[in-house]
Fold this protein.
Amino acid sequence: MRIGLYPGTFDPITLGHLDIIRRAAMLVDRLVIGVAINRDKGPLFSLEERVEMIEEECAKLTEQTGTEIVAHPFENLLIDCANDVGAQLIVRGLRAVADFEYEFQMVGMNRALDNKVETVFLMADASHQAIASKLVKEIARLNGDVSKFVTPPVRERLRAKFA
């Protein structure tokens, strides 16, 4: 069974994330969405809320792709999380050159820690390249329209947070 791991904070999950998840699901038999517990980032949504949003959104993708997609919170090293879930590959989405520079360093470090786990980069679809969770939260906080960046259920959760 080919298992992939797509890690991130998903605070909140965006249409860009969902595009990468849908495309990554075509490459593996099981896709684990690693939900990072990153206390330094101070997420807007709790871990439970982020996992719930991922499970809700990915249920539709599981039906469409036939690939099992599950959420898995983690707080350890990414490479250790990959080994914990049995992933042979880590999926990373790239939006711009700046993303590549950071990700390139991460791949080198992860390969030094465990060279059996490969990293696969998926370029963001052109329509999603500008989407960043941080910017989506800022737009929502200022009562802007985020409907181009997130699904309706996520948009409603953002509205509730900033009400």
About this structure: Helices lie at 15-25, 47-65, 78-85, 97-113, 133-141, 152-162. The radius of gyration is 15 Å. The chain has one domain: 3-125. The mean pLDDT is 94.
